[in-house]
Design brief:
The complex is a heterodimer of chains A (438) and B (365). Chain A is built from 16 helices and 9 strands. Chain A is an alpha/beta fold and 438 residues long. In chain A, strand 2 and strand 3 form a beta hairpin. In chain A, helix 8 runs parallel beside helix 9. Chain A starts with 35 loop residues before the first helix and ends in a 5-residue tail after the last helix. With 365 residues, chain B is α/β, with parallel strands linked by helices. The longest helix of chain B is centred in the N-terminal third of the chain and has 20 residues. Chain B is globular, with a radius of gyration of 20 Å. Classes of the chains: A alpha/beta (438), B alpha/beta (365). At the A-B interface, strand 2, helix 8 and helix 9 of A face helix 5, helix 6, helix 7 and helix 12 of B. Chain A: InterPro entries: DH_E1, PDH_E1_Alpha_Subunit, Pyrv_DH_E1_asu_subgrp-y, THDP-binding. Chain A: Keywords: Oxidoreductase, Pyruvate, Thiamine pyrophosphate.
């Protein structure tokens, strides 16, 4: 399936090894980024090992099936000559995207502030810089579609619709949080918005997402319900070396499950560079090996991500099976707030700072007359107020009561067993007061 | 009146079995005039069959559960009856398919995941503990995980160190899981049905050597709504001199030991735990307070084992009632050897239980 002759190729991935996205995307870049010179000079030395390892011959083999339609390809070619006359988004869509990305950014910045003030604690992993991936994908989903993420899950939850107040309260460990303070930063769950976690172990979310997709297919084919739910699994470059990832690529493709595997390749797994840990750093290639299309996209450009996402999600909804999408992106902050972030080259960070997805979208909106300064400033203000409000709300919320310690271990609380008086422990009135001995 | 209704249903059930399942049920019918006997294998198979037909959300997943009819023939006939979408043969990917099962449970289905043996569950233990057991807590009740992990646990015969470990203690220490250890056919049927209906993750530890053993079953057991409550131990044999607590295969050995002890004038009470988590501390302590002596028997490794937990619970709750130290019998503290004679030494045998019970009794006589 993946190796069919009808494959259409959007970007030539052959140029991938020579430098990061910047130079090769110039020709099909709607949102202009920095010149390639800057890109290759500083990154060249880091990528030397990758360059030598990948010979032209091996790059050509194995079809890259890109899933965007001809229309998109046309648009991309057109735009190289002039500003695109056929815009990819309407004004409303543009503002929605902008608002969502700014919400993610502002929220994470506030998290950092709160952490250093001691209101938040433990492990907090921030998403600054990667907003294009979350917004580009999740804003295309319906409420019934599922999102499964890693520990870097605040923005995925926000994009999916979990109110900022609930996420902030959860981070503060208050009882008004989305998990009533029992989950924390790394374990955001929301049944209402179908956010199925929030997992601390990398690779753990991938089989769970595959299971949710399995449920979707089962509902359609065995229970005969009208179900076209799609699941998105978000994970990083480090996870792509993990066994569970490959097991799920195999089974998702084998059973044609409605899932999109979204790799947020930010080049670093804590302090381990992707190139130091991976034999073949081109992750999209792992898709065709298992019989599904592997697509590579510039993850700092929300419009490109949205195009690819539209195709991939559409494929899944139509029952054509899974897709592996590798988004090249970058995190502006360290792995977590406790990470001193000493191993990354400051020049690399500076390079990506100039490719900030929010600035890029802003520029696109201005250049194409989709919005003006005032409108965007209004959105900024609105979001800032939402964030402020969420902090105040979280601050004012109560901490969990004592009895909450024993709650929710089991859906059926008789799982706590039989007490010394011969009755079920959960029937003991002291159980809910938090004073029972278990 | 309910009793009569149940009997009627049971009779109907026997007819249904007859038409649909062939030879096995004919044998059952042949015995129906006297006490019914059922192997543990048939008990599990019938429980799965009934639960799958009652609820279309229940499905099975595992290696060789479909076309091979089950590695130990437990899921025989289910593929033909329910089709490949409800009896799913998986590739050899424990971590992957266990996670898929957990994800499916998150989103509303009720999977029954089979491990060929629980030794292989170690490849999937991340999902059993971290994404199944802890999820209801982490999501504060939003996401419950109605999944059952089942398969043979403990020693078989001559299968070597990597296929013989008993995992009751490991799973039993994790909050959020329910861990069940059936012994007889009645236990297997009732507990598996209860497990599948339970909204929480359940680890169902069977025993390969018990699969072929036949046990008498009452008509009530054959009823399709028969369930055994989770968390309640069963007193297999009443006694007054010493309490022997065991689970799974060791219950059989304990009953044999109790017979031998009876001939020597020691009246042993045998408790079949049925459930490791939640542990029925109430029944154990009540029994100890009656007999004042206790012997725990398990197949697993001794350190941090089930017996250790029972000893702790008895000392905490019934210390003044003990007339002798708690006797703990467990497997030898070594990986299981292959050679038959030393393998026999690595696991408790009936003589060991008898000796320990006598030790518990003679201490203060």
């Amino acid at each position: 399936m993946a190796c069919s002759a009808t494959a259409k190729i959007i970007h030539n991935p052959l140029m991938l090894s020579s430098s990061r996205s910047a130079e090769k995307y110039e020709s099909c870049c709607k949102i202009s980024g920095p010149t390639s010179l800057l890109g290759s000079k500083f990154l060249g030395k880091k990528l030397l090992s990758a360059k030598s390892a990948i010979s032209p011959a091996s790059r050509r083999s194995g079809a890259v099936v890109a899933v965007s339609s001809d229309v998109v390809k046309e648009k991309k070619l057109k735009s190289s000559s002039s500003a695109a006359s056929n815009l990819l988004i309407t004004k409303e869509e543009g503002l929605v995207l902008y608002e969502d990305m700014y919400l993610g950014r502002a929220f994470e910045d506030m998290c950092a502030q709160m952490y250093y003030r001691g209101k938040m604690f433990g492990f907090v992993h921030l998403y600054n810089g990667q907003e294009a991936v979350s917004t580009g994908f999740i804003k295309l989903l319906k409420q019934e579609d599922c999102v499964v993420s890693t520990y870097r899950d605040h923005v995925h939850s926000l994009s999916k619709g979990v109110p900022a107040r609930q996420v902030m309260s959860e981070l503060f460990g208050k009882t008004t949080g989305c998990c009533r303070g029992q989950g924390g930063s790394m374990h955001m769950f929301s049944k209402e918005h179908n956010v199925l976690g929030g997992f601390a172990f990398i690779g753990e979310g991938i089989p769970v997402a595959t299971g949710a997709a399995f449920t979707s297919k089962y509902k359609r084919e065995v229970l005969k319900e009208n179900c076209d739910e799609v699941t998105l699994a978000f994970f990083g470059d480090g996870t792509c070396n993990n066994g569970q990832f490959f097991e799920c690529l195999n089974m998702a493709s084998l059973w044609k499950l409605p899932i999109v595997f979204v790799v947020e390749n930010n080049l670093w797994a804590i302090g381990m560079s992707h190139l130091r840990s991976t034999s073949d750093p081109q992750i999209w290639k792992k898709g065709p090996a298992f019989g599904m299309p592997g697509v590579h996209v510039d993850g700092m450009d929300v419009l490109k991500v949205r195009e690819v996402a539209q195709e991939a999600i559409g494929r899944a909804r139509r029952g054509e099976g899974p897709t592996l999408v590798e988004c090249e992106t970058y995190r502006f902050r360290g792995h977590s707030l406790a990470d001193p972030d000493e191993l990354r080259d400051p020049a690399e960070k500076a390079h990506y700072a100039t490719r900030d997805p929010i600035t890029a979208l802003k520029k696109y909106l201005f250049e194409n007359n989709l919005a003006n300064e005032a409108e965007l400033k209004a959105i900024d203000k609105k979001i800032d107020e939402i964030i402020e409000d969420s902090v105040e709300f979280a601050d004012a919320s109560p901490v969990p009561a004592r009895n909450q310690l024993l709650e929710n271990v089991f859906a059926d609380p008789r799982g706590f067993g039989i007490g010394p008086d011969g009755k079920y422990r959960c029937e003991d009135p002291k159980f809910t007061e938090g004073t029972a001995q278990v | 009146m309910l009793g009569i209704l149940r009997q009627r249903v049971a009779a109907k059930f026997n007819y249904a079995l007859n038409f649909e399942q062939g030879i096995g049920s004919v044998a059952l019918r042949a015995f129906s005039s006297s006490a019914n006997k059922m192997t543990v294998r048939d008990a599990i198979n019938s429980a799965l069959d009934e639960e799958m037909s009652a609820d279309p959300k229940v499905f099975m997943m595992g290696e060789e559960v479909g076309e091979y009819q089950g590695a130990y023939k437990i899921t025989k006939g289910l593929l033909d009856k329910y089709g490949p979408q409800r009896v799913v043969d998986t590739p050899i990917t424990e971590a992957g398919f266990t996670g898929i099962g957990v994800g499916a449970a998150y989103h509303g289905l009720r999977p029954v995941v089979e491990f060929m043996t629980f030794n292989f569950s170690m490849q999937a233990i991340d999902h059993i503990i971290n994404s199944a057991a802890k999820s209801n807590y982490m999501s504060s009740g939003q996401i419950s995980v109605p999944i059952v992990f089942r398969g043979p646990n403990g020693a078989a015969s001559g299968v070597g160190a990597q296929h013989s470990q008993c995992f009751a203690a490991w799973f039993g220490s994790c909050p959020g899981l329910k861990v069940l250890v059936p012994y007889s056919a009645e236990d297997a049927r009732g507990l598996l049905k209860a497990a599948i209906r339970d909204p929480d993750p359940v680890v169902f530890l069977e025993n390969e050597l018990l699969y072929g053993e036949s046990f008498p079953v009452s008509a009530e057991t054959l009823d399709s709504s028969f369930c055994v409550p989770i968390g309640k131990a069963k007193i297999e044999r009443e006694g007054k001199d010493v309490t022997i607590v065991a689970y799974s295969k060791m219950v059989g050995f304990s009953l044999q030991a109790a017979d031998i002890l009876a001939k020597e004038g020691i009246n042993a009470e045998v408790i079949n735990l049925r459930s490791i988590r939640p542990l029925d501390r109430s029944t154990i302590n009540t029994s100890v307070r009656k007999t004042n002596r206790i012997v725990t028997v398990e197949e697993g490794f001794p350190q941090h084992g089930v017996g250790a937990e029972i000893c702790a619970t008895v000392v905490e709750d019934s210390f003044e009632y003990l007339d002798a130290p708690v006797e703990r019998i467990a497997g030898a503290d070594v990986p299981t050897p292959y050679a038959a004679n030393i393998e026999r030494m690595a696991f408790p045998q009936v003589e060991d239980i008898v000796r320990a019970a006598k030790r518990a009794c003679y201490r203060s006589r």
